[in-house]
Design a protein that fits this description.
single chain; alpha+beta; Aminopeptidase; 2 domains; seven-stranded mixed sheet; four-stranded antiparallel sheet; 8 helices; GNAT_dom; Acyl_CoA_acyltransferase; N-acetyltransferase domain-containing protein
């Protein structure tokens, strides 16, 4: 890790778990530091801009450094969100903005979780990419799903040879895209998939974490039941659309 990356990590670690999605890409070596100072950090993580500013004035300064509105922007404070909306929502090239307020779920223990032997959990091949894209309920993005399957970060739980559910890992390293097919729900498939994903992360020396959209009470309950810590602070995924 470079001195710049270490400086950025030191700033973010003041927030403990509230900027885990910025800390882990730095630790894992795929975050590019766009700015670091006493007033904040701004990262590029596979094209997603992530920002944590110390105050409103710093948030404005950091956002103004961007040449154009990124497709994805993660604001870790309300003033980061407000600055982004202020400087980009009125642009001639801007078509729209959607916002997903979330909270993190972070597995802080080093202890592996038990995985039910009832299910066979294995890495998914490209053969399953269309099925994953069809079943996943939050978005429809075949190229993104296929890219992640190719990267080997999607795993499925099988009952015999039938796919019962799946889980993936987003580009920034967050566990997610957990889905269980209706006929297999309430049978422990989701717990088995997430426990297996946690254990794989721990084996690599990583801190397992995920995003939970506000209002998804079932997911919050699942994370708590598995020993995840859920900080109270919210963060915001801002997704931009080009003007048509």
């Amino acid at each position: 890790m470079t001195a710049t990356e270490q400086k950025a990590l030191a700033f973010l670690e003041q927030d403990a778990l509230e900027s885990i999605d910025m800390q882990e890409p730095l630790r894992r070596g795929f975050a590019r530091v766009l700015y670091v100072g006493k007033d904040g950090v701004q990262l590029d993580v596979h094209g997603t801009i992530m920002q944590r500013a110390a105050n409103e004035q710093a948030a404005d300064r950091l956002v103004r450094r961007l040449q154009k509105a990124p497709k994805l922007f993660t604001a870790h404070k309300l003033w980061d969100k407000a600055a982004f909306e202020k400087y980009f929502c009125g642009a001639d090239t801007f078509g729209g903005l959607s916002c997903n307020p979330c909270r993190f779920a972070v597995y802080t223990s080093k202890k592996p979780l038990p995985v039910s032997p009832v299910f066979s959990i294995r890495q998914l091949t490209l053969h399953y990419a269309p099925a994953v894209n069809q079943q996943y309920h939050l978005f429809n993005d075949s190229p993104y799903i296929e890219k992640l399957v190719r990267a080997g970060v999607f795993y499925g739980a099988f009952v015999g040879e039938e796919l019962a559910g799946f889980i993936g890992k987003h580009a920034e390293g967050a566990l997610g895209m957990l889905e269980v097919y209706p006929k297999f729900r309430r049978q422990g498939v989701g717990i088995a998939l997430e426990a297996d994903a946690v254990n794989r992360s721990l084996a690599k020396g990583q801190v397992p974490f995920g995003d939970v959209i506000l209002g998804n009470d079932a997911s919050f309950a699942l994370q708590r039941s598995m020993g995840f810590s859920i900080p109270t602070a919210e963060h915001y995924w801002l997704m931009t659309e080009p003007k048509k």
